[in-house]
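Predict the holo structure. Ligand: magnesium ion.
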Amino acid sequence: MSSKPPLSIVHHNRLAGEDADLRAPLVLAGEPHSAATLVRFGSFCLWPMQRLLLQDNQPVHLGSRALDILIALLERPGALVGKDELIARVWPKTFVEPANLTVHISALRRALGDGRDGNRLLINIPGRGYRFVAPVTVSDQFKPSFPETSVAGQCHNLPARLTRLIGRRDIVVRLSAQIIRDRSLTVVGPGGIGKTAVALAVAREVATSYTDGTWWIDLAARGNPQDVAGAVASVLGFERDPEKSLTNLVTALRDKEMLLVLDTCEHAVAAVADLVAAVLRNAPGIHVLATSREPLCTEGEQLCRLAGLESPPAHCASAERARRFPAVELFLERTAAGIGEFALSDADAAAVSDICNTLEGLPLAIELAARRVSSLSIAAVAAGLKDPLRLLTAGYRTGPARQQTIRAALDWSHGLLTDKQQVVLRRLSVFSGEFSLQDAAAIVSDQARPDCPMVDEVTELVSKSLIASGVSETQPRFRLSHVTQAYALEKLGESGELDAIARRLTDDSKAPMRRAAAVSMLNAALSAIEPEEKERSSGGGLRFIPSKPSRRPAGSKGKLHHAIW
Ligand SMILES: Nc1ncnc2c1ncn2[C@@H]1O[C@H](COP(=O)(O)OP(=O)(O)O)[C@@H](O)[C@H]1O
Ligand SMILES: [Mg+2]
């Protein structure tokens, strides 16, 4: 037993105003700066100030209420601490049934192994309270140190990478510097572009910079994606209180120095934005790196829009040259992983360059294309990209469901759109090249004028990474990627609007560019039609024959069956 006087811990209410009712951190009476105070019992070390409990140098995951109880009992080791006092300490200003105390005492006992192997740490005095009976020593000469893990002695839960990151070195270096400087950084881009891969590389790079660790929170893995505070709390081992989870979390993080990596935010973007705004405002040591198909739009957020991996020019016939591009490197590595050794020949270089080019360096699509090489030749894979939804289907069994096929990746984004946005996206699929807002308005708007709602929807689709945008000769220009266009075109066919939208293109005599786009749209549509149907419908010159959408035969999911030319 320590020769020191028992700990005397008092509430130190450091929060004013709105947060004053929250459970305050506990500090030692008379020693408000005793951050180094360490309490030892058995194989456990507790730093009350840091609310950190280790057993044999490993963190013990204990709910915050159970931890409050432990700290309260350790204020007066050996003495009886009444039930009412414990309840008042743990649930200040809240009425709770004594059964709640029992639940958290049980959790505490389980975590401490109380009663196991003859261990006796706390005992119940029936009807009165609890007594901490194990020997306790107190010291203030130790600094808390997080257990060693794979990243230079720092606490983290970053998933191990199973494959290496190809290319992206400059971005990782830049973002690593940026997340240390700016507190909120969001990596944005379409599904499969490599947001998670880049965020993981950045997090590993900077993990040692945060005293309280770097914590990875996969929001796609949550049952209720809106409960972002609950997701963060459970990863950090804080107890969850659905009623006040955000305020409790903010309080718990207030004096922490930590990087939170929030992966896959797009399906809970508003809830994530609320959490990030509250954390940034109230917990100055917390930095947030997020990945999302659309920005969080919070104050102070820095954006990194991720483009595809660099690809060689189409038809690049030199293997030696093509190999220097990260998109090709990725294709070759994944192909080799699937079929064993694979050396790129000059003969195949052009087809591989075309694959990477057509897929615009989208890593997920490149991986899915590479997996086809086990059953198809490189040239056949390149040709098969005319119908990317059908070709790009062989994902990793162990990957997330939304990355099993390119269709699943697009379904995930499409499912997050409003009805209006879905209409605009599918109508825009008739453009296989760039288009302007005026072009879009002529095709999309029912009034054939560039009215505001249409502009808003296009802007939203750009924000959600479904439309790429750029500026050409001071005019904003827009474009759908090859896979998004194929997907949206399929939706247009399914909606029964294809003929009407095609007519809008061809009826507009003042728009040669749109007529050109109509031709490519219809070529794309034709390429997705069964061969015999294609023969029937394309015999003879270029004729526009509006027709009613035909019913798709069974087994032809995802195909357009309109006799349109
Ligand atoms: N630069 C890269 N090097 C190697 N593989 C990559 C790279 N970028 C992405 N990938 C792979 O592509 C797939 C999709 O990447 P991911 O990071 O999950 O995309 P996102 O998070 O944008 O949806 C994953 O299998 C990932 O490992
Ligand atoms: Mg991701």
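The chain has four domains: 9-139, 169-305, 319-407, 417-538. The first helix runs from residue 64 to 75.
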